[in-house]
Each structure stands twice: as structure tokens, then as C-alpha cells.
Amino acid sequence: MDYKIRKHNTPVSTLIKQYLDKKGGKVTVARREIEWRFNALDWRHQKQILFAFLASGLTDRTWAYRKLFVFWDKCFIPVIQDLWEKHPSEEMLTWLIIRYFPIDFLQRNFMRLDKSRNYFYLCVRMSDVKGFVIDRTRLNECDLLRIKQVLGESFSIDYAKDLFYIVIYKYCKGVYKFRSWQTVVMEGKDPILSILDRPLITKMFSEIDNLGIKGFELSFELQKWIRTVTRKFLSEHEGFSDKRWDVEEEPKIREMQMEYCYKQIDPEYRNIWDTFDCHDQQQFLDYLDKKREKYQPSKVKLTKETKAEALKRISMNPSARRLVYNFDLEVIDPSSNKE
Q1: Distance between alpha carbon 297 and the CA centroid of its chain, in Å?
Q2: pLDDT above 80: residue 298
Q3: What sign does the CA torsion over 218, 222, 227, 228 have?
């Protein structure tokens, strides 16, 4: 049997020299080889490569930024700070700064860093800083649920349920934008209306799944609601399930989904929320605060002792959630077993 003999690996030090020699004609080949072998290299070589890429063009810098999220070392602080001063519009730089820079640096540069969703990550990083107050009106519903967990605040599972339906409501009211080039998307064998398969809704399910057994049960309930709404919509609009829409048709189909899903939200929610300015998060926060005493007495407070780690891992798994739904399985909390 004939075998093709593979070319021996070029020494990493040689590849780095070839990459740094911008006039040597081997930059592209060296870059490709370096990126392919990077994760398996010794740290001393990885560090050389990261510094070299950070000193290069935007594409190579971006590659280095991504690597630094998992190969971070404080020796990169000066160069990242310098790059941020030179390229303040490169968002990934701010992500690295928020995650790894000292707290006092974040405090001094807070107003430069807190744009868009960076504010949430700053809140997470600075949650233990004395005197730091979180402006929750700047957080979306997923982040409101997450910040409760970060701060170790106890809350009812009904709080998470209300947040989920606020997300749905805001999609229906156009606060959260989306496009609907197809009426449904497929999750396994189940069709789901495209308005109900948005990234923020998927993220909300992930946050709810993190709440252990109560979250798992709520996730099952909400998934069932989504599938029920989808089935009802498709039964009333025959021939829509397998269609794709062009630029002219899309707005009409999007509006149709928004109006239909709005009507499927419990009137107990709609009657109150319809009196709000949908873009005023403070009104929704006030609503949740007033409702706090009406929530079920059982509270969610995540601790290491709350649930077995194995069950927590399963509950965080979307595939496991679908199995429970499709086969009507019962989830048993091992901590409730008294035998």
C-alpha cells in the first residue's frame, strides 16, 4: 500500500519569523499554519504570536482578540489599552477590557465603556463594588433575570415567567425588531413561528434553564405554549408553513404574526401592559415590583446545594428539554427522594 509522505512541520520559530517579515512573501502561508497549530503550541510561542498579531492589521488583530478571551494574561494589558486608544471603535477590545482589566480602570473609564450591552457586562463585573448602583432600566429581560442570579437575589419562578411574556409582548409591539422571511422555522420535527424563534427568546430559555428543576418545568410549559400558538396559527392560515416571503410580502407576514401572537398572550398581562409606554422599561419594572407580593411563596435562589450538578447540566441542555417535551417525560428532583 502506498502512502503519501506528509511534509514535516516547519519549526514554530521559523513561522513566526516568516509572518513578521512582511516583505518575505511567506506571510499568508505562515499565518495559515500558525492559526492551525496555535492551540497546541507552548505558551511562550502562543504569547509571541499573540503580540505579533496584535501589532498587525484589523483581521489579524480580531483573530488575536478572540484567542485572548481564553488565553488571557495580564501582560497583555498595556498593549490592549494602547490599541483601545488608537482604535476605540473596535468593540471586541471593550469586551476584553471589561472582562479582564482591573476594577479601578473600569471605574475611571466607565462612561467610555458602557455603550449598548456592554453596560450589562460592566454590571456583572462591578456588582461587588461598594456604592455601585445598577440602572435596571438599561437591561433587557434576559439580563434582568441574569443579574438576579449574579447578585444572589431570591425570586419567584413566576418572576421569570412574567419576564418571558414581556419579551413576547415587546416583539409583538415592535420594541424588539425582527424580520420574517419564512413563516415558521423547524426545531426537530416541530414548526415554530419565526416571531417565537428570536435570539432574545432563545436566550431567555437558556436563563430559565439555569434555574434548576423549577426552571426546567417552566421551560417545558413555555415551550408547550409556543408550539400551541404555532399550531393554531397554521391551522387558521393554510399553506403558510412552507412559504418563503420576498421583500414586499415580508412586512405583511411579520405584522400578521405580531397581531396573532399578541392575542395569545394572557389578557391579564395585556390589559395592564397596554397602558404602558412599551419603550419605558421603568413601567415594567414597577409592575414587577408591585406584583412581587402576589408571586408564589416558593423562591428561586441558586446555591451549590440546591440541586444535583448532573440535573443542572441536563436542565441547561436544549436537546434534553425537547426530549422531555416530545416523549412526555417526568423530571424528578433527586433532592426530594426521602428513601
Answers
A1: 29
A2: no
A3: positive
